[in-house]
Amino acid sequence: MEDTETFTLLPLKMDPQSKAITSTSGSRALQEELATLNNIHRSLLTLDSPVPPPPIPVNPKRSANITKLRESGNNEFRKGRHPEAIRFYDLGLQMALTRPAWEPSGLVRDEVAGLYANRAQAHMAMSNWVEGSVDAESSVEAKKVGNAKAWWRKGRCLMEMGRLEEAKEWVGRGLEMEGNEADLVGLLKDIEEKSKKA
Protein backbone atom coordinates (compact mmCIF):
# COMPACT_ATOMS: atom_id res chain seq x y z
CA MET A 1 0.00 0.00 0.00
CA GLU A 2 1.33 3.41 -0.95
CA ASP A 3 2.22 5.88 1.80
CA THR A 4 -0.23 8.81 1.72
CA GLU A 5 2.35 11.12 3.31
CA THR A 6 4.81 10.75 0.42
CA PHE A 7 4.71 13.08 -2.58
CA THR A 8 5.79 11.59 -5.89
CA LEU A 9 6.51 13.94 -8.78
CA LEU A 10 5.17 12.35 -11.96
CA PRO A 11 6.82 13.08 -15.32
CA LEU A 12 3.80 14.70 -17.02
CA LYS A 13 3.93 16.70 -20.24
CA MET A 14 1.22 18.62 -22.07
CA ASP A 15 1.18 18.92 -25.85
CA PRO A 16 0.82 22.66 -26.61
CA GLN A 17 -1.40 22.06 -29.66
CA SER A 18 -3.79 19.31 -28.61
CA LYS A 19 -3.48 19.95 -24.84
CA ALA A 20 -3.20 16.16 -24.38
CA ILE A 21 -1.33 15.06 -21.27
CA THR A 22 1.27 12.30 -21.57
CA SER A 23 3.79 10.65 -19.30
CA THR A 24 7.04 8.75 -19.76
CA SER A 25 6.24 6.72 -16.65
CA GLY A 26 5.81 3.00 -17.14
CA SER A 27 2.88 2.87 -14.70
CA ARG A 28 -0.07 1.20 -16.39
CA ALA A 29 -2.54 2.76 -13.90
CA LEU A 30 -1.23 6.24 -14.68
CA GLN A 31 -1.46 5.62 -18.44
CA GLU A 32 -5.09 4.48 -18.07
CA GLU A 33 -5.97 7.57 -16.00
CA LEU A 34 -4.33 9.87 -18.54
CA ALA A 35 -6.15 8.14 -21.42
CA THR A 36 -9.47 8.69 -19.61
CA LEU A 37 -8.62 12.32 -18.91
CA ASN A 38 -7.61 12.98 -22.53
CA ASN A 39 -10.82 11.30 -23.80
CA ILE A 40 -12.95 13.54 -21.57
CA HIS A 41 -11.05 16.59 -22.81
CA ARG A 42 -11.55 15.62 -26.48
CA SER A 43 -15.26 14.93 -25.94
CA LEU A 44 -15.75 18.37 -24.40
CA LEU A 45 -14.00 20.01 -27.35
CA THR A 46 -16.13 18.18 -29.93
CA LEU A 47 -19.54 18.91 -28.42
CA ASP A 48 -22.04 20.19 -30.98
CA SER A 49 -23.55 22.59 -28.50
CA PRO A 50 -21.56 24.89 -26.26
CA VAL A 51 -20.84 23.88 -22.70
CA PRO A 52 -23.65 25.15 -20.45
CA PRO A 53 -22.79 28.05 -18.18
CA PRO A 54 -22.34 27.41 -14.47
CA PRO A 55 -25.50 27.68 -12.39
CA ILE A 56 -26.52 31.05 -11.01
CA PRO A 57 -24.82 31.68 -7.67
CA VAL A 58 -27.99 31.99 -5.58
CA ASN A 59 -31.40 30.50 -6.19
CA PRO A 60 -33.80 33.39 -5.41
CA LYS A 61 -36.78 31.02 -4.97
CA ARG A 62 -34.97 29.10 -2.24
CA SER A 63 -34.06 32.36 -0.47
CA ALA A 64 -37.68 33.55 -0.65
CA ASN A 65 -38.97 30.22 0.69
CA ILE A 66 -36.53 30.24 3.60
CA THR A 67 -37.58 33.80 4.46
CA LYS A 68 -41.25 32.81 4.23
CA LEU A 69 -40.72 29.82 6.55
CA ARG A 70 -38.91 32.01 9.10
CA GLU A 71 -41.71 34.61 8.97
CA SER A 72 -44.36 31.89 9.33
CA GLY A 73 -42.49 30.59 12.39
CA ASN A 74 -42.34 34.13 13.80
CA ASN A 75 -46.10 34.53 13.30
CA GLU A 76 -46.80 31.25 15.08
CA PHE A 77 -44.48 32.28 17.92
CA ARG A 78 -46.34 35.59 18.37
CA LYS A 79 -49.63 33.65 18.57
CA GLY A 80 -48.14 31.47 21.33
CA ARG A 81 -48.10 28.33 19.19
CA HIS A 82 -44.50 27.45 19.94
CA PRO A 83 -44.45 23.83 18.63
CA GLU A 84 -45.77 25.08 15.29
CA ALA A 85 -43.14 27.83 15.24
CA ILE A 86 -40.43 25.21 15.83
CA ARG A 87 -41.80 23.14 12.95
CA PHE A 88 -41.50 26.11 10.56
CA TYR A 89 -37.97 26.88 11.78
CA ASP A 90 -37.05 23.20 11.27
CA LEU A 91 -38.25 23.33 7.67
CA GLY A 92 -36.36 26.57 7.06
CA LEU A 93 -33.18 25.05 8.49
CA GLN A 94 -33.52 21.96 6.31
CA MET A 95 -33.90 24.15 3.24
CA ALA A 96 -31.00 26.45 4.18
CA LEU A 97 -28.63 23.61 5.07
CA THR A 98 -29.26 21.76 1.79
CA ARG A 99 -28.26 24.65 -0.45
CA PRO A 100 -25.88 23.55 -3.24
CA ALA A 101 -22.19 23.87 -2.40
CA TRP A 102 -21.58 26.58 -5.01
CA GLU A 103 -23.89 29.05 -3.28
CA PRO A 104 -22.14 31.55 -0.98
CA SER A 105 -21.46 30.11 2.48
CA GLY A 106 -21.96 33.55 4.06
CA LEU A 107 -25.60 33.51 2.94
CA VAL A 108 -26.13 30.07 4.44
CA ARG A 109 -24.49 31.15 7.72
CA ASP A 110 -26.75 34.22 8.01
CA GLU A 111 -29.92 32.24 7.28
CA VAL A 112 -28.98 29.41 9.63
CA ALA A 113 -27.93 31.77 12.44
CA GLY A 114 -31.32 33.53 12.36
CA LEU A 115 -33.32 30.32 12.22
CA TYR A 116 -31.41 28.66 15.07
CA ALA A 117 -31.75 31.80 17.22
CA ASN A 118 -35.50 31.93 16.59
CA ARG A 119 -35.93 28.22 17.29
CA ALA A 120 -33.96 28.68 20.53
CA GLN A 121 -36.44 31.39 21.59
CA ALA A 122 -39.37 29.08 20.87
CA HIS A 123 -37.78 26.30 22.95
CA MET A 124 -37.16 28.78 25.77
CA ALA A 125 -40.82 29.81 25.72
CA MET A 126 -41.69 26.16 26.44
CA SER A 127 -38.95 25.90 29.13
CA ASN A 128 -36.98 23.46 26.95
CA TRP A 129 -33.69 24.86 28.26
CA VAL A 130 -31.40 22.18 26.86
CA GLU A 131 -32.82 22.42 23.33
CA GLY A 132 -32.79 26.21 23.52
CA SER A 133 -29.18 26.17 24.66
CA VAL A 134 -28.10 23.90 21.80
CA ASP A 135 -29.91 26.00 19.19
CA ALA A 136 -28.53 29.28 20.56
CA GLU A 137 -25.00 27.89 20.52
CA SER A 138 -25.51 26.63 16.94
CA SER A 139 -26.61 30.13 15.98
CA VAL A 140 -23.46 31.62 17.52
CA GLU A 141 -21.29 29.05 15.74
CA ALA A 142 -22.80 30.13 12.43
CA LYS A 143 -22.42 33.85 13.19
CA LYS A 144 -20.31 34.97 16.15
CA VAL A 145 -20.45 38.78 15.72
CA GLY A 146 -23.69 40.72 15.40
CA ASN A 147 -25.70 37.93 17.01
CA ALA A 148 -26.27 39.27 20.54
CA LYS A 149 -29.68 37.60 20.84
CA ALA A 150 -28.18 34.14 20.42
CA TRP A 151 -25.41 34.90 22.95
CA TRP A 152 -28.08 36.10 25.41
CA ARG A 153 -30.37 33.09 24.82
CA LYS A 154 -27.63 30.53 25.46
CA GLY A 155 -26.59 32.40 28.63
CA ARG A 156 -30.18 32.53 29.83
CA CYS A 157 -30.69 28.82 29.18
CA LEU A 158 -27.53 27.97 31.13
CA MET A 159 -28.71 30.20 33.99
CA GLU A 160 -32.14 28.53 34.05
CA MET A 161 -30.48 25.11 34.18
CA GLY A 162 -28.47 26.25 37.23
CA ARG A 163 -25.14 26.14 35.38
CA LEU A 164 -24.18 29.58 36.65
CA GLU A 165 -20.40 29.40 36.13
CA GLU A 166 -20.85 28.29 32.52
CA ALA A 167 -23.47 30.99 32.00
CA LYS A 168 -21.15 33.65 33.39
CA GLU A 169 -18.29 32.50 31.17
CA TRP A 170 -20.57 32.32 28.11
CA VAL A 171 -22.00 35.81 28.63
CA GLY A 172 -18.46 37.13 29.20
CA ARG A 173 -17.41 35.74 25.83
CA GLY A 174 -20.55 37.25 24.31
CA LEU A 175 -19.65 40.66 25.71
CA GLU A 176 -16.18 40.35 24.16
CA MET A 177 -17.78 39.75 20.77
CA GLU A 178 -20.70 42.19 21.03
CA GLY A 179 -19.20 45.00 23.11
CA ASN A 180 -21.26 46.27 26.03
CA GLU A 181 -24.59 45.12 24.65
CA ALA A 182 -27.28 46.10 27.18
CA ASP A 183 -29.14 42.76 27.32
CA LEU A 184 -25.92 40.82 27.88
CA VAL A 185 -24.77 43.23 30.59
CA GLY A 186 -28.16 42.86 32.33
CA LEU A 187 -28.02 39.07 32.09
CA LEU A 188 -24.52 39.02 33.55
CA LYS A 189 -25.79 41.03 36.57
CA ASP A 190 -28.69 38.57 37.01
CA ILE A 191 -26.28 35.62 36.90
CA GLU A 192 -23.95 37.23 39.45
CA GLU A 193 -26.87 37.98 41.81
CA LYS A 194 -28.14 34.42 41.50
CA SER A 195 -24.60 33.11 42.17
CA LYS A 196 -24.42 35.09 45.45
CA LYS A 197 -27.70 33.61 46.64
CA ALA A 198 -26.68 30.04 45.80
TrEMBL record:
Superkingdom of origin organism: Eukaryota
Biological processes annotated in GO: protein folding
Gene Ontology CC, one term: nucleus
GO molecular function: Hsp70 protein binding; Hsp90 protein binding
Residues annotated as transmembrane: none
Stated name of the protein: TPR-like protein
